[in-house]
Amino acid sequence: MKIIIVGIGKVGYTLAKHLSAEGNDVAVIDKSQEAADKGGDSLDIMCLRGSGLSTRALLDAGVRETDLIIATTSSDEINMLCCLTAKRLGAKHTVARIRDPEYAHEVSVLKQELGLDMIINPELEAANEIGRVLRFPTAINVETFAARKVELVAFRVVKGDKIVGKNLAGIMNDIRFPILFCTAVRGEEVIIPDGNFVPAEGDLMYIAGKPSAITDFFKYEGKYQKQVKTAVIVGGGRIAYYLGLGMSRLGMKIKIIEQSKRRCQELDELLPDCIIIHGDGTDEQILEEEHLEAAGAVVTLTGRDEENLLTALYASRLRVPKVIAKINRGNYEGIIKEMGVDSIISPKNVTAAQIIRYVRALRNTIGSNVETLHKIADGRAEALEFVARESTWNLGVPFKDIRFKKNFLVAAIVRNGSIIIPTGNDCIRTKDNVIVISRSSNVNDLNDVFEA
């Protein structure tokens, strides 16, 4: 596909990197010559200096032949106008990053009036992801599929866990819960396990199943924690706003610590059910005064990775049950995990995964088959949801009689509202929602998991 990305900041760069790696013809427009040069040199793609509102820049980038334009500048208004202009010049599809909460309730109107095919709000998506973890604090990460009927949950194996030293076949025979061990991360290795795999201390394991079955498994392991009742958010930006709004509506007691007095006043008006504290969230005295150690969870959401890292480590040292840190730089993720903070949120990666799903749906010649896409295992594997169609191969054939490609696993099937954790005797039927785990990063269709 021919794709133009306008704006090569954090989100734009991440998108350009992933989309070009998947074989798309990517061009970038940025008003900064330095940013354009950096993108061109490191990604080996065409980068042009110019404004996303410039007809000349869009034409030079090939907008008339473009399948998709993605506007990711820091200005919502520029992104919207850029997409409108590109559509009139011939771009087939448009995606705009729109972050301002004032536009959040106008999505349908904006899409209709401006001809936008997709609107993405990175901060809202990040807040939703954090919210899922706060509702299931035992987990390091929670992804949902099939209208939340199926969850994919990551957890760390620790010394004393009942599954340590047993192979998965034996574990499944012992527990008899309808779950499936889908992926294991051991050091730098990502494994799609079979029944002979033996979990070890330190492994990051992903399991799939309906929420009640996953809860039963964690109770069996002695890991179960109830939903967080109180949370302290350090940093009062847009993610904090969306998170505070959503969690307070669920009855969670939220306290937000923000350094800007003006922003505190804004949040106080916007979030009447939250407690807003004016102060430096990295100041140990402030954190002691606000009894950080008594919180059910701490979420660090300042604009600086270093501050988020230090505050998260401090909260972990106080043994706060759940600590989540926003980190934008990938090179910090390994450090923070080694120090005991497993739950990391990256808005740019959340956004990239959403848009990549959309791109793959567009690229799929038989229709929008990719329903959901989540990057897992630090981006080294994917969890995808497909809808089986008449053109899907091997319909009605038992799994034991199908040749699957290496490094793929069917984790769950949702059929008429019922969840099936597949065995060799199960099969795929039309209209099934099929959740697949893949170590490949270029899966566009359910047929990609089968040997021809």
From TrEMBL:
Gene3D superfamilies: NAD(P)-binding Rossmann-like Domain, Regulator of K+ conductance, C-terminal domain. Transmembrane segments: none annotated. GO terms for molecular function: potassium ion transmembrane transporter activity. The keyword Ion transport applies. One of its GO terms (cellular component) is plasma membrane. Residues 140-223, 371-452 form the RCK C-terminal domain. This is Trk system potassium uptake protein TrkA. It comes from Lientehia hominis. The lineage of its organism: Bacteria, Bacillati, Bacillota, Clostridia, Lachnospirales.
